[in-house]
Amino acid sequence: MWQRGGVDGSPADVDLALVGGGGAASLVLAALHRRGVSGLRIAVVDPVHKRGQDRTWAFWGTPGNDLDPMLSASWSRADVVTPAGRRVLSLAPLRYAMLRSAPVYDRAAEAEAQLGAVRIGAAAGAVDDDGHRVTVRDPDGRPLVRAGWVLDSRPRPPARPGRTSWLQHFRGWWVEADAPTFDPDRAVLMDFRTPQPARGVSFGYVLPVSDRYALVEYTEFSPALLTDPGYDAALRGYLDLLGLDPATLRVREVEHGVIPMTDGPFVARPSPRVVRLGTAGGATRPSTGFTFAAMHRQAEQVAAALAAGRPPVPRAAYPRRHLWMDAVALRALDRGHVGGVEFFDRLFDRNPAERVLRFLDGVTSPAEDLAVMRSSPLLPMTGAVLGDAVGRLRARVRRPS
């Protein structure tokens, strides 16, 4: 049901309002429907009803969950490539998976209808929480909806600038070949043979869905974006590294994205009845920019809480010790204490692939975290730890009381 506010023009009154209708909200709607949540008045506030293929999520996890029927492809083996050679990783018991947006949006639309949710086709502005009810207003201040709880997934910057602020930025081409060209049984997770930026790290990767069709992408972790011609030149260069002639490939789709990598804090619960999800809620891993797995966990935790009659407040996306480790790693990379290729190569060389992937998802134990830390270059990382401690102390001194 699509409307601007209540049926009489007044603000809709609901139990739960989802502000932003992208991936995070879509996962919440699907999880609520799958758990059989009923009797909950729900509104979705977004001027755009997301449909079709507008992004691709790649993530790792254990097979056998609700995402399986929607996957475009998955792989139990993946390559990490450096100028020194190729490492083939066995990911078992995990798998690397590709999920395109269209089936996620389709499932969310079905869930939305089954849940009887109201869709409010307007942009949201301020969100006012009086501790009992929350009013979502449009950009001009007019009330759109009043809710018992608000889940806000709109992108926003951290509460204060980080000591280190990078970006994961990328461009990918969905390419089709006339003859068998790709190995559909193996993904290329990170290929560091790409020319490295002066400050940062770059890599290519290949996600094949068949022997003739694949997503080929160029990614950088660095402080600044490239120009459009810069991304295209980097992609052409990566195709050349793969031994592929762009003239023999057809580019069917283009994907582009920018994701924050920062140790700046994201406030997941800015007021008593407002909860932020997705990047705004801390789901983006600062050291890599990966987001989807934590976003999916948030949705499952929200749905489980509501099904049990509890407040829809998910756990922190990552343990505090992981956020500290990410801050140290970002500092080490940013200040040139350690090279990006060396850092990631040692990570995969000195740890089982499963441990590395679970660490990047924030689900490793303290003992496993210590093993990961020991695989890092000792002296450079020690310098980064000391620098991070000094930076935190200076930030506290400067912060107004």
Q: What does it look like?
A:
The protein is of the alpha/beta class. The radius of gyration is 22 Å and the shape is globular. It has helices spanning 23-34, 101-115, 228-241, 292-307, 320-334, 340-349, 353-360, 366-374, 378-398, and strands at residues 2-3, 12-19, 42-45, 56-61, 73-75, 77-82, 85-90, 95-100, 118-120, 127-129, 134-137, 143-152, 165-177, 187-191, 201-208, 213-222, 249-262, 274-276. The longest helix has 21 residues, at 378-398. The protein is built from 9 helices and 18 strands.
Computed over alpha carbons, the radius of gyration is 22 Å
Q: Between the first and last Cα atoms, what is the distance in angstroms? A: 47 Å
The fraction of residues in strands falls at: 25-35%
Helix content: 25-40%
Largest sheet: 8 strands, mixed
Note poorly predicted spans: 1-7
Report mean pLDDT, rounded to a whole number.
92
Instruction: Tell me, briefly, the overall form.
Output: globular
Number of strands: 18
What is the H-and-E element order?
EEHEEEEEEHEEEEEEEEHEEHHHHHH
Helices, by number, come to 9
- What structural class do you assign from the helix and strand content? alpha/beta
